[in-house]
Design goal:
about 400 residues, alpha/beta, TIM Barrel, Lyase, Ornithine Decarboxylase, Chain A, domain 1, 2 domains, 9-stranded mixed sheet, about 30% helix, elongated, disordered N terminus, binds pyridoxal-5'-phosphate
Amino acid sequence: MHDTTDLQIPSAAAVAAKTRGPLLRRFSDADAMVAALRPSYPVFCLRPHVLAESARRFIDGFPGDVMYAVKCNPHPAVLHHLFEAGIKHYDTASLTEIAQVREAHPLAEAYFMHPVKSRAALLSASKVYDVRHYVIDHADELSKILESVVRRDIAVLVRLSTPPGNALFELSDKFGATPDDAAGLLQAVHAAGLETGLAFHVGSQCGEPRAWRTAMDIAARVIGAAGVPIRYLDVGGGFPASYSNHAVPPLEDFFAVIAEGLKAMPIGPDCAVMCEPGRAMVADSMSLVTQVQLRKDKALYINDGIFHSMSESAVAGVKLPARLIRPESAPATATADFTIFGPTCDSTDLLPHTVALPADAREGDWIEFGQIGAYSNAMATRFNGFSSETFVSVDSPAFLPQ
Ligand SMILES: Cc1ncc(COP(=O)(O)O)c(C=O)c1O
């Protein structure tokens, strides 16, 4: 093991001087980007003002502190704009994510919220990056933390499993202690002299506000059974984006249900309430511009797909708004439904829904897909040698379903 004592977090001023924000080339909209670059590679169009609005909506509306789930979109420009918009807490799942947050923004707090961590990662998180919040769902993980981290003024949150809600992705199958075990773990954390917390995640893209109330009622019983002071209550992520084939209530309905649930929660004023949104924070802030490489009848072969930026479309059937871009001439006004194939040789590399586009769509046209900020670049593979790594910034409004 290397000695890390001489590794220091650089001062905020030093970092601020170095990172005034990732310099993305800026365009008025995706059309202007296409006209200028005529890209044969996929291009992500980030809308910083949409990110800022989304951060503000959470900060103003959520009854507690907002922690962004870095896994959802860890691009440095995304982290930069969220930090600038006032997001100071970050849910990180790995040492890489912790480093990314703490090195770019020393004033940001990284929370190590993966229930299973290596000893090496725990040591580095604690010693190099000064991480003070961890999560567990098993007693052995608590022992590991106690044996690995270098300080004792830390908080350990217990991840509670919750019943299936109306979520597209259930997360409690893999992580989370049962209510009985969670109460015992809270007592063990308290007995170890650490600050305690309780966390849950109702599942990603959860369209049902009452799922939070159900989970909070269970959390209240666990806190009552544990009988120890609770310093953190983390109601997780899972807040949905409004996809055209997954209509959901506005975020404010979710915040209202959570605020109501807090009234019945046996916690004191010194308990910090937190949420960990990923998807709802970033989904609408990015679009992806792809290019058509071949047309065969009603099938278009494009340069991005389910192994790259669109894996969620395949896994969850999320339908993204799409439009054709052809700078030099107007496309046909009549539309047709096209099958969209991705670039790899895998026959499963196609979008699960047909896409309505001008009937004369052809090779060389570009297609912009909206609502692609969540779990896109974060989950892309390099399969078949394709990768989507170009980001620009655009000033136009979010590209949402009509
Ligand atoms: C622990 C944890 N927190 C937060 C998130 C973010 O969830 P979402 O993007 O659904 O808001 C996830 C997603 O997997 C997660 O596992």
